[in-house]
Amino acid sequence: MNINKGKFKLHANIEYRENIYFLSVTVTNISEITLEFDFTNHTGSFARNCIQIYDCDKNINTFRGVELMSTKSFNNEITQIKPQESATFILEGKIENIEEDLFLTFKGVNYLVEKGKKYFIEINYLDTTSGLIPFIIE
Questions:
Q1: Is 75 exposed, middle or buried (0-12, 13-18, 19+ CB in 10 A)?
Q2: pLDDT tens sequence across 38-52
Q3: Short-list 133, 138, 109, 135, CA closest to 26
Q4: What percent of the chain lies above the pLDDT cut of 90?
Q5: Phi, psi (5° rounding) for residue 26?
Q6: How far is Cα 136 from Cα 119, in angstroms, rounded to an integer?
Q7: Mean pLDDT score of the chain
Q8: What is the dihedral of CA 45, 51, 52, 56, to 10 degrees?
Q9: Residue 60 DSSP symbol
């Protein structure tokens, strides 16, 4: 995998539809080589390590839980992105009510949230960030 040798930009967007938060992450190759990497969330490690949630004052949400898991079958899914091309990956999140608290949960990580409140989400991957994207907990 050669993603560490190349340069890329990240763009993220979050949409709420049918009780699911769809977090799309677009990786754009801005280097002169084809990037190859495994960009999946099979075990939840991508979500645990790369998703950050901030409150309305843009302070990092420290009320975060992690879920460690392994998959029954694991396939490396090597993605190739040619120079000046992009690939988009989708992670699904949902709101869970646990002991009267609400959590925004992606496979591998969850964040304590409040209904109707504004938050910001950011993706941090290999020293590259997507920037803060606002969203409201429905």
A1: exposed
A2: 777 777 888 888 999
A3: 133
A4: 58
A5: -110, 125
A6: 6
A7: 86
A8: -140
A9: B
